[in-house]
Amino acid sequence: MSKTTEASSQSTSRSAKRSRGLRRSSMKSESSRPLELDEQLAINKHIQVAKERATWVPPKPQAWPKVKGWSSNQIVKATLEFDALVADLAAVKMPKFDAVELVRAERSKNDCE
Amino acid sequence: MHLVADSSIWIAALFAQEIWHVEASEFVRDVLAGLHQVAAPASVLTEVVCACARRCRQYGIDRNYAVEYGNKLRACPYIVWKTVDVNLAYEAAVCGRIHGLRGMDALVAATAFHYGVPLLASDNDFRVLEPALYVFNLREMPRGN
Q: N or C: which end of chain B has fewer CB within 10 A?
């Protein structure tokens, strides 16, 4: 009984080895396969884009403009007005939305137009 | 903190129904109080008011709310509205071509490069600008600055 089990396990390991070998050989043939022209062009394009991004130098930053600030009264007034505006609109029943999607939709509509 | 903010931030701040509203409205309050100074191309003002007005119209709300909001943003001295002239438009065009951005996104990105400041956006489309530009969203916003 034990001999049978041993034999069957040996045959299983042999078949596993064989299948692994086959898989390895198929992988080898996949990697050594010459690239199609469109594949090579796509890779070249990726490399070109990566090179352009890497070599692109952003323009020299300019100084931040001088700002004449608000008085504390003006700050309080502006904040209260903003809060009132938000509260007015919050009272309206409308579904939850994502501003990013809203902007994207606006932009795609503009692109179509 | 000096930074550039995308239009979606300003829109999210106005509507409580927006998923980023809490963070965005807190950010706008900070800007109104002068805790942050924000730059944006002037086209963002148009985009914000138009998107808010469309949203108002959709739900039968007076569209003047959107205009009023635009007036408040325009009047705030801590928001620098960068004029979109031919130089910025060209910088945006080059930046957009290199990074594969949409036209409006390219203007926002070009403004950030123009001042050399980080970019606040709730949109992952701007992440292509990294590492040339520091891009973050409202939840990644550095606190205590």
A: C
